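Re: [ENG-882] Designed sequences occasionally contain unexpected residues at chain ends

Forwarding the minimal case from QA. C-alpha cells:
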C-alpha cells in the first residue's frame, strides 16, 4: 500500500467509513483494494461487509455496534503496517451494446452536443477500457471511469422517470449500464444485451470493483439473439484475465 493520508470516521453505529484523498485515480483504487485484501486476512468476514468505491471503503458490521475509538486505531495500525502486495483475480469484460437510435435514445443529442457524428461517438465509446470504480445506486450498477474528454457530457437536466433495463449511459466522466428499469438522468446511447444482475447467480453481479469493461457494437439482430440466450442461461460473457 502507498500509505496515503486516510480519514476514518463513524458511519452510524454499525459502520465505519475510511476515506482516501478526494481524487479519481486508479492508484488510489488499487490502494483501497490492497487494503481490503489485508482486512480479509485480519477480520471475520462472517461478521463484516466491505464496500469499496472510488476513494472510500465502508466497513459494515452485521452482528453488533462498533466501538469506534478502539476499532479506529486498529484500522490505522493495519493500514500503516508493512505488507506485501496481494494478488487478486481481476478481469476485462467484453460487453455487447446495440447503438440503434431507438435504443440509444439520446445518441443523436449527445453527438450534437459533442459536435461530432453518431458513428464517431460509438467508435469513441467502444475504443476505451473503463475501470469499475464502484457498484451501487442499483444492485449491479457499475460506475465506470476512464471516459475520454471527447465523450464528456453533463447529466440530463430533467431525469427520466423510467430508464429501460440494459440502457448504457454517459454522465460527465462516467459511463454505466442500468441493470433494471429505474429512474435516471444519464444520457442513453445504447443498450447492453447482457443482464448485469441476477439474484439467482453466485455472485449476483459477475463484475467486481477493480475490473475493467470494454464495449463492442452489435447489430439489432445479434442483440435480439443475445436477449434470448441470456434468458435461457446459455449466453457466455467474454472475460480476459488481467494482471493484478
Amino acid at each position: 500500500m502507498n500509505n496515503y493520508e486516510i480519514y476514518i470516521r463513524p458511519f452510524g453505529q454499525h459502520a465505519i467509513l475510511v476515506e482516501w484523498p478526494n481524487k479519481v485515480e486508479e492508484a488510489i483504487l488499487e490502494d483501497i483494494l490492497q487494503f481490503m485484501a489485508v482486512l480479509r486476512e485480519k477480520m471475520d468476514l462472517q461478521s463484516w461487509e466491505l464496500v469499496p468505491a472510488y476513494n472510500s471503503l465502508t466497513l459494515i458490521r452485521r452482528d453488533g455496534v462498533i466501538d469506534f475509538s478502539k476499532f479506529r486505531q486498529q484500522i490505522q495500525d493495519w493500514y500503516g503496517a508493512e505488507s506485501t502486495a496481494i494478488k487478486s483475480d481481476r478481469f476485462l469484460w467484453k460487453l455487447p451494446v446495440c447503438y440503434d437510435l431507438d435504443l440509444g435514445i439520446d445518441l443523436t443529442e449527445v453527438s450534437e452536443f459533442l459536435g461530432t457524428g453518431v458513428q464517431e461517438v460509438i467508435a469513441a465509446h467502444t475504443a476505451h477500457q473503463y475501470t469499475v470504480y464502484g457498484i451501487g445506486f442499483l444492485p449491479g450498477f457499475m460506475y465506470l471511469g476512464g471516459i475520454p474528454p471527447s465523450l464528456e457530457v453533463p447529466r440530463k437536466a430533467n431525469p427520466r422517470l423510467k430508464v429501460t433495463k440494459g440502457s448504457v449511459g454517459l454522465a460527465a466522466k462516467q459511463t454505466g449500464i442500468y441493470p433494471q428499469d429505474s429512474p435516471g438522468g444519464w444520457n442513453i446511447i445504447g443498450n447492453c444485451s447482457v443482464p448485469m444482475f441476477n439474484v439467482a447467480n453466485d455472485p449476483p453481479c459477475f463484475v467486481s470493483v477493480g475490473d475493467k469493461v470494454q464495449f463492442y457494437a452489435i447489430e439489432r439482430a445479434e442483440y435480439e439473439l443475445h436477449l434470448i440466450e441470456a434468458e435461457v442461461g446459455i449466453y457466455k460473457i467474454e472475460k480476459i484475465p488481467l494482471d493484478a
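QA comment: On inspection the terminal residues look reasonable. The chain has two domains: 7-80, 90-242. Proposing we downgrade this to a documentation issue.
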